[in-house]
Design a protein that fits this description.
Blueprint lengths: L2 E4 L2 E4 L3 E4 L6 H31 L6 H28 L5 E3 H34 L4 H4 L2 H26 L9 E2 L6 H7 L5 H34 L4 H29 L8 H25 L2 H16 L1
Length: about 325
C-alpha cells in the first residue's frame, strides 16, 4: 500500500478493494447465492436462446429482431460482468478485488448499461418508422443503417464509460478500501474517496440524467406518434399485433430507465447504499433475465420461431 507525504499529512493509497456485499450469516449468504445463481442461469439461457433463434430463423431477419439480438447480447455480457464475481464472493473470506479489476469491472458495467439505454431508444425509433412511415421503412432502416445505429449505441456507451471511469479512478482512495456494495460502482466508490467528489457527482447526475431524460423523451415522442397511428387503424388484428410488440418494448423501457433513475439520476442516491444494493440487483440481474422472457412470451413470431427450432432439432 504506497503512501504519500504532504507536510505533516501522510496518506496511504489502497491498491486493493474489499467488496462487502450483503450482510448476514452463512444461511443468508447461502440463500443469496442460490437466488443470484438462479437469476444468472436463467439470464444466460434466455439470452443465448434468443440470439440463437434470431440468428437461425430467416423469418426473424428484420431490423426489429436485429436490434433485439444485440439487446440480448448486451444483457448477457452485462450480467456476466457482475454475477460470477458476486457469486464467488458469497463464500469468500477476503472478497478482495484489485484496483485494476475494479476499474475494469466498472468500465464494462458503464459501457454495457449505457449501450442498453441507447439500444432501447433505437428500438423505439425503429418501431416509429415501421408503424408511422411503412413506405419509407425498408430504405430508412436498411442493413447498413441498422449497423450504424448499433455502432452508435456502443460509441455512446464507450464515451460515457471512459468519462465516468477516468474521473472516478483518478480520485485518491485513502480513507478506506471497503466498498459497501457487491460490485464496483460510482456511488459506493465516491463514499470512500478522500478527495473532492463534487465534480464526480455532477458528472454522474449530469450525464446520466441527461441521457435518461433525453432517451425517455425520444421514446415518448416515438410512442406518441405510434399510438396516434394505431388509433387511426381500422384492423383490430393489426392493432393487437402492434400493441403486443410495442407493449413488450415499453415494459422493458419502464423497468430499465425507472431503476437507473432511482439509482443514478436523483440527489440522495449516493447516500442510500442499502437501497442501492437492492435496486442494483434488479437492474444488473433481474432485468437482463426478464428481457428475453418479456419479448418471447408476448411475441408471436418469437414463440413460433422457438417452436420451429425445437421441431427441427427433434427431427434431426
Amino acid at each position: 500500500m504506497p503512501s504519500h507525504s504532504n507536510g505533516n499529512l501522510s496518506m496511504a493509497y489502497f491498491q486493493d478493494f474489499v467488496l462487502e456485499g450483503f450482510g448476514g450469516g452463512l444461511e443468508t449468504q447461502a440463500l443469496l447465492f442460490a437466488v443470484f445463481l438462479a437469476l444468472y442461469m436463467v439470464t444466460v439461457l434466455g439470452n443465448i436462446l434468443m440470439i440463437i433463434v434470431i440468428t437461425l430463423d430467416a423469418r426473424l431477419h428484420s431490423p426489429m429482431y436485429f436490434f433485439l439480438k444485440n439487446l440480448s447480447f448486451v444483457d448477457l455480457c452485462y450480467s456476466s460482468v457482475i454475477a460470477p464475481n458476486a457469486l464467488a464472493n458469497f463464500f469468500s473470506s477476503s472478497k478482495v478485488i484489485t484496483f485494476a479489476g475494479c476499474a475494469t469491472q466498472f468500465f464494462f458495467l458503464s459501457l454495457l448499461a449505457t449501450t442498453e439505454g441507447f439500444l432501447l431508444g433505437v428500438m423505439a425509433y425503429d418501431r416509429f418508422m415501421a408503424i408511422c412511415s411503412p413506405l419509407r421503412y425498408p430504405s430508412t432502416m436498411c442493413q447498413s443503417a441498422c449497423t450504424r445505429l448499433v455502432l452508435g449505441a456502443y460509441c455512446g456507451g464507450c464515451f460515457n464509460s471512459v468519462v465516468q471511469t477516468s474521473f472516478t479512478f483518478h480520485l485518491p482512495f485513502c480513507s478506506s478500501n471497503r466498498i459497501n456494495h457487491f460490485f464496483c460502482d460510482v456511488p459506493p466508490l465516491l463514499q470512500i474517496a478522500c478527495g473532492n467528489t463534487a465534480i464526480n457527482e455532477l458528472l454522474l447526475f449530469g450525464i446520466c440524467g441527461f441521457m435518461i431524460v433525453g432517451l425517455a423523451i425520444v421514446i415518448l415522442i416515438s410512442y406518441g406518434y405510434i399510438i396516434a397511428t394505431i388509433l387511426r387503424m381500422r384492423s383490430g388484428a393489426g392493432r393487437r399485433k402492434i400493441f403486443s410488440t410495442c407493449g413488450s418494448h415499453m415494459t422493458v423501457v419502464t423497468l430499465f430507465f425507472g431503476t437507473l433513475f432511482v439509482m443514478y439520476a436523483q440527489p440522495g442516491a449516493i447516500e442510500s447504499m442499502e437501497q442501492g444494493k437492492v435496486v442494483s440487483v434488479f437492474y444488473t440481474l433481474v432485468i437482463p433475465m426478464l428481457n428475453p422472457l418479456i419479448y418471447s412470451l408476448r411475441n408471436k413470431d418469437v414463440k413460433e420461431a422457438v417452436q420451429r427450432l425445437g421441431q427441427k432439432h427433434m427431427t434431426m
